[in-house]
Amino acid sequence: MEEHDRQLERMKELHKILKEASRAYYQENAEIMSNYEYDALYDELCALEKETGIVLADSPTVKVGYEIVSELPKERHASPMLSLDKTKEREALVSWLNGRAGVLSWKLDGLTNVLTYRNGVLEKAVTRGNGEIGEIITNNVKVYKNVPLTIPYQGELTVRGEAIITYSEFDRINSEIADAEARYKNPRNLCSGSVRQQNNEITAQRNVQFYAYTLVMAEPDPGFATRCEQMEFLKKQGFTCVEYKKVTPETIVSEIGRMEEELPKNDFPSDGLVLTFDEIAYANSLGRTAKFPRDSIAFKWADETAQTTLLEIEWSASRTGLINPVAIFSPVELEGTSVSRASIHNVSIMESLGLGVGDTIEVYKANMIIPQIAANLTKSKSAKPPKYCPVCKAETVLREENEVKSLYCPNAACPAKQVKSIAHFVTRDAMNIDGLSEATIEKFLSEKIISSAADLFRISEHKEQIVTLEGFGEKSYAKLFEAVEAAKKTTPARVLYAIGVPNIGLSTAKLICRVFGEDLHAVMNATLEQLVTVDGVGEVIAEGMVSYFQNPENRQKVEELISILTIEKPESVSASPISGKTFVITGKVEQFKDRSALKTYIEERGGRVTGSVSEKTDYLINNDALSQSAKNKKAKELGVTVITEEDFMKLAESEE
Catalytic annotation on 631? Predict the structure, then answer.
């Protein structure tokens, strides 16, 4: 180990020792070392920082002030941050190298940050954003666990890397949240929210880490010939760098195999590998296509599958009366997490898979996120739909529409319908009332605190009762009350979606409200003939909506909400090149937080998003260049244009 590396390791060791001593002294009124010992170690750290020119963000010698900002300012990148072309074929990477050496590294699954240093001091940090414009998060980056606030290099330096939250830290944060429904779903989403906080004290509490992977610019130019030299340079500046390995066409396949073996052991989230040419001059000479840089390519793991045993089929009642089958199986590890259940969606799928308790099934994570059953290897076909609702015990009804069999509970008073209905009412796309899990809603119903969704806006009348409930207190109540008050200011489309009209999603609700002048009374009084003229509303949706509002109880529910809420018309959308176009989104997105965010972006500009490809689809958005998904195949059959996110952004912004 070189002297510089030993110094860095000693600095990190001193960080840990001094922080533990401070925690014991200030938080526990205990001393684990004398003041003399503490001062000696502190002085040693100061000397090392002076000698190396490196001060890490979590150093005991640094006091970074916490700051709350009203919003994160935005900034356009000097050059677009392009997505990478992708492949799942290992041999394709051998051909791609074309006889040259490359650098293989992990493709970390977090939030890309671009850091700029001037005269050895961190000056600015910006998120990737949509690739063109990012958010300035300098104050937040200063409280990352391992970012150097000062570096030895005294020129201007820009480095790109990934902000991540480790699996162990993710588990720690979730373990402190008692309500399972309120826990974070995955490290990437938690990291994205943590990095983009307006209060950087919250960022600090999440222990975000930064892994550098590209030296974007250094002026004056150090004159590096290879990527490996750049990475070694970044390490000497105090950056934690993503693990990388120099490879050749002869070694790359075996190296991928080695990294694949490491994948389950990694504490950091990743969704593949990145291969870059090692020779900088050659890489720069390649330029870029309209979609991708030519000097790098991403390798995506093929869907990981695992065999397991089906233990039972659980039937879950919903707000519409639909009772969905859910497969419960022996836990298996997939994509770094333990999985033990997967939705089967409907009775037809259950029957087509030939499911039965004890069957050997193959499971995988669709898009590395959603557990699904890939195949049933034994097909006992013994599973049957229950004769009675698992909640209210009413006799169930099996209905078939468009050759799809689904199970329903016909009991209008089924408690599951009420719980699920209110749970839907408070979701993010509906009224967006944070902190209300199904368990809490069920508790509020049983305690007679609420009897309908509208009663949520009157919880202040029950404050004394709520704060005495198990799991609640003054702080929990205050947070809930604040969320309820914020939700009172809303739009007609959110209300229409929230009340749970059958087959009305948020995008359809927006279209309907737009056509009827953002007037909920006009929407309630719309005729079948008027509704079927709305783009995307067929006879089934129109009939269901007319039937819903013919029910006096439903009309009264909406009138009550109108009297309580402040319903504002959304700002009119200016003419957009995607207005009136129909899109389908598949696979993982990279320039948006998730597919829901991309969907919102499209709808706000007058476009429409559907779940399946048809002759009416204008574009399929898919970032995977080699995807053989059913949607891609369908698009090719129908002549539907397949575009990447980058293509879409150029289309959406071409005339704005």
Answer: no
